[in-house]
Amino acid sequence: MIVTRFAPSPTGHLHVGNLRTALHNWLLARSGGSGSATGRFLLRIDDTDAQRSREEYVEAIRQDLAWLGLQPDGEYRQSERMDLYEDAFEKLKEAGRVYPAYETAQELELKRKIALGRGLPPIYDRAALALSDEQRAAKEAEGIAPHWRFKLDHEEHIDWADGVRGPVKFDPSQLSDPVIRRADGSWLYMLPSVVDDMDMGVTDVLRGEDHVSNTAVQVQMFSALHEAGMGPDHCDVVDSFPRFGHTALLVGKEGKLSKRLGSLSCEALRERGIEPEAILSLLARLGTSQPVEPIADRQVLIETFDLETFGRAPAKFDDAELERLNTAIVHQMDYAEVQGRLPEGIDEAGWHAIRPNLSHVSEAAEWWRLVTGPIEQPEFSDEDRAFLGEAADALAWSDNPWGDLTTALKERTGRKGKPLFLPLRQALTGMDHGPDMGELLPLIGEDEARARLEHAAGQTPA
Ligand code: GLU
After folding, report:
1. How does pLDDT run across 319-332, given as a tens digit for each residue?
2. What is the CA radius of gyration of the chain?
3. What's this model's pTM, rounded to 2 decimal places?
4. Nearest CA, atom 5, ligand 1
């Protein structure tokens, strides 16, 4: 069984980048088997950073996922799981895989600069590991509380078969031992994530390629925790970590997305009238070799989801493409799906008539005003006024009033094409373009239609 997780930090609103990761994990879980063996998609709120995490964002994350229809099968919060991290930490400490370090941020920055100045990679020099017990005791006597680093095993190769990138290798001696715990006892992201992925039985970690170097050290954390006796018994060390996949980053048409993320939050898209299906259609296929199409049926997205089709090049997010998809999705939407969001009075026939003109469902009210009025007619020439007077006279009600009206007027006036249709449309709707008149006229109704034609003909006072 496939178990995936989406692990946002509640320090802001979800944006298209996060949504894409959530969707990939949801799709992977949903595509992972059927019946009782369906996969599980977990939501894990990474809220170890108490200072930056906000409850309002946790709530917004839940709402955004629900709105998109990416319901998790379980929810966890790291802030409620501190005992587990403490336990893992103690085990790693006993096993000699974590060590205290006392450098200040300034000292570390200086070391970095010196290394870079010498043309060396800025890898932590493990000075803290060389401290004797007395030296440590002296630091603590000075009141310096240590932060804690995970000790990478330089002899243990790091490699994994990445679901997107293929085989990935790292030389552990070229990596810094990561800081996993701050001097105040709070956790950095790295270790709790591994502890949780183990504890929750996560089989697949699918995330952005900005996490590749985190994965390198996390792979060693998985095996260190297993060796220290954590995790399910049946796992042997070789198989001790989940499958990893790192997707290429999402970029804007003109480069980085980071500056525009506010306007690309899930909330902003929702307020702009973008449909969940448009977002999912775009994000499911962006950066893959499969065509981006307006696919309202999630089952199709699930069945065609395939990591093998993901490319290594950055995926380009284009707002115009999202708008195009939205328009196409709106044109596919049934009355039953939108009923609750439409202004009162629009029935199924009304929705059907105006739907082809909408890019957003919210525009329905504007178009519906053509039916309910009041409309604003343009100035007509004397000739057109006479023609519209004929129209008022010729108007007769039937199953097909528009067809009958235009046929009768063709005969009476000899007009055809644009001179026939445009003044009628303008008189009946106040616009030069819009919904199919054959569908619209029955909705306007006989009396109102005649009144509009008579008004346009100058037969009634303004
Ligand atoms: N909280 C981390 C983030 O938002 C999670 C990364 C992960 O998926 O492991 O980047």
Report:
1. 999 999 999 999 99
2. 32
3. 0.91
4. 7
